[in-house]
Design brief:
With 144 residues, the chain is mainly alpha-helical. Helix content is 79%, strand content 0%. The chain contains four helices and no strands.
């Protein structure tokens, strides 16, 4: 039985969307002083992001390139989203690892300072991951 790798982009979009929701949940919890729930949400967000990364790398090890079918202004929008998504996604990895390390080692002041920058970047990456998927695989913005 062969694995159908074509399902992985949809899996990746679901993982990105779930990560965004978990990040928002973690943010709400910490703002309300619910550190236990914040920790749970953030560990879940980190886990879904790791699963996304494994799935993404697996898919692109098998299928190296998927051309974008859109033309005109929407094509420019797609590539701006894609480039900013990829560049910022690369920055999320070390930030998330540092945040996790500092939180588990009680360095909350450092954790808080970086989290103020990391959260909006990580949210942007998660949400634009879903948008890029919709544009590339579901034809969002592509006219017939």
């Amino acid at each position: 039985m062969d694995f159908d790798f074509s399902v992985l982009p949809a899996v990746n979009a679901v993982l990105n969307g779930l990560s965004a929701l978990l990040l928002c949940g973690g943010y709400v919890c910490i703002r309300r002083g619910r550190r236990d729930w914040h920790r749970r949400f953030m560990i879940a967000a980190f886990t879904t992001s790791v699963l996304f990364l494994v799935s993404y790398l697996t898919y692109h090890a098998v299928r190296l390139h998927t051309p974008y079918p859109g033309q005109g202004a929407v094509r420019a929008v797609y590539f701006v989203l894609l480039v900013t998504h990829v560049v910022l996604a690369a920055s999320v990895v070390p930030m998330a690892l540092l945040l996790l390390w500092w939180a588990t080692h009680g360095q909350f002041a450092r954790h808080r300072r970086l989290a103020r920058w990391a959260l909006p970047i990580w949210l942007y990456v998660s949400v634009t991951g879903v948008v890029v998927y919709l544009m590339l695989y579901r034809g969002l913005g592509v006219t017939a």
